[in-house]
Amino acid sequence: MNFAVSSATVLSDLAILEFAGVDTPAFLQGQLSNDVMAATIDTAMLAAYCNPKGRTLATLVLWKMPDTQNNEPVFQALVKADIADALVKRLTMFVLRSKVKIRRLSTEAIGLKLESGNTAANVAVPEVNGLNLGALPDAFEPYRVIAHPGGVSIAAPQSQPESQRWWFIPADTHPTALEPNANALSKWQTADILAGLPWVEHATQEAFIPQTLNLDLINGVSFTKGCYPGQEVVARSHYRGTVKRRMTRGTAHVPVEHIASLAGQDIFDAHSAHPDSPAGRVINAAHDDTQAQLLLEVKLADMNQAQYRLGEPNGPVITPASLPYSIEPGEQ
Which InterPro entries does the record associate with it (predicted)? Predict the structure, then answer.
């Protein structure tokens, strides 16, 4: 099937971090939950950055760039923009004598949605400088990396098999002329939620272990690599089967102007013996033009019989919805 771009969105809620220097692979291997040593220039990976207690400070999409002219490794990563500067500062504290430079790039990621040529034929999409659509494959594989003359594209998880999503990362020499669009950004964030892709933002830092975000179910955690901050806690929860909370999806009727404040907000279970006690919390939220799409942290034991309410015991009803992968109770 031939695909064409049906939308191009400035992802102003995300930032791009760059790690460069001869010690970069070893440094990242000692900081992140996934096996950075297995990274190639053809495949990106999902990972968590945790504190020593195993609580997630950030979720990242990480990929390897071509080495510099001095043969120094370079990695780049997508993170939520509201935690990017703090992450650079914190990670730089642990560089010590390692030869690694960490910086936030000034360029912004672009979200590309591709649909069949017939579907996208009548959609006017601004040109994205440096993007070679011919390089994007028809066969879609999440986290595949494709190089272009003016940047790289990374395949984003997608819940709709008839379309594709790509993060396009422009090179500094190919700035985009696209303007931010709040409605288009909300649609992209909704697609992240439908795909079951969690993003840790400022409101939810240190609230979850990686398994609570299902990162172990979507290839964001390696249990065979070496140590990293929080590794003992993450591994113990995995091998002892003590993961009691998971991420699920739900919908609620919430005004669009309230969406930005939902991340980290408590949810309540009207069927609980203690309905006034929080039963979980919101991980991410977006509006799909009709209702709020939510990623939620909940107790596995309550998932199938709970009646969740948003924000307060009598708050908006949260209707359960499915994810594109299994989160069966007890699955490790």
Answer: YgfZ/GCV_T_CS, YgfZ/GcvT
